[in-house]
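User: Please fill in residues for this 215-position structure.
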């Protein structure tokens, strides 16, 4: 225990950085949708890899430095980031990009209503999800798959032959601007999902007249 306390005191900056990283990781898990254990696991793997690489690189230094030199620690962290990133690609979670069959859809008020819903909502709430190349790159692939899983669990417009627990919230979510969520179109992503004022008004009217999509 005393030895560990000496290590902590000798590397106070690293300890503070670890604490800040943990807090940022928890905040990040809320923002991007990854469960906290997965986010903390990534941070822990990154921290351990950084420490291990630093200790391995400094093994030939005599005497060993009591403080991690800034440049050495930074380059070790960069190497650890690469190692953790490559290791994450071996995790199978998030790589199942299959789309189930379309077994039933709402009785859309108009074909335009369906077209607008497809553009704005089907990539998380249907069995017609399009999977760009970056959905194969972890840990981003984990986040995107989690969003689709959660979206389909709330309402799946391709499986309307069975009860959809939040289907009646569709109109209200569109009115509030929650669907599609702001992050979905952030930075120019999914430009097709950006609806003009006229398109949004048409979608709201269509949902109001589609059975099962409003209270």
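Assistant: Residues filled in for all 215 positions:
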């Amino acid at each position: 225990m005393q030895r560990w306390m000496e290590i902590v005191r000798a590397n106070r900056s690293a300890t503070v950085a670890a604490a800040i990283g943990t807090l940022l990781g928890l905040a990040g898990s809320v923002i991007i949708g990854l469960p906290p254990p997965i986010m903390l696991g990534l941070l822990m793997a990154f921290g351990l890899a950084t420490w291990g690489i630093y200790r391995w690189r400094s093994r030939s230094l005599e005497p060993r430095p009591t403080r991690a030199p800034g440049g050495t620690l930074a380059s070790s962290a960069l190497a650890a980031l690469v190692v953790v990133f490559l290791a994450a690609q071996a995790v199978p979670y998030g790589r199942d990009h299959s789309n189930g069959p379309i077994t039933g859809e709402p009785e859309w008020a108009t074909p335009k209503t369906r077209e607008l819903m497809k553009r704005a909502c089907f990539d998380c709430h249907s069995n017609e999800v399009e999977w760009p190349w970056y959905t194969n790159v972890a840990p981003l692939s984990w986040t995107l798959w989690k969003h689709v899983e959660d979206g389909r669990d709330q309402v799946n417009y391709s499986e309307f032959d069975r009860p959809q627990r939040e289907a009646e919230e569709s109109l209200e979510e569109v009115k509030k601007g929650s669907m599609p969520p702001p992050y979905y179109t952030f930075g120019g992503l999914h430009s097709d999902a950006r609806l003009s004022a006229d398109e949004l008004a048409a979608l709201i009217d269509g949902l109001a007249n589609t059975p099962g999509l409003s209270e």
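For context: The chain has two domains: 2-88, 111-208.
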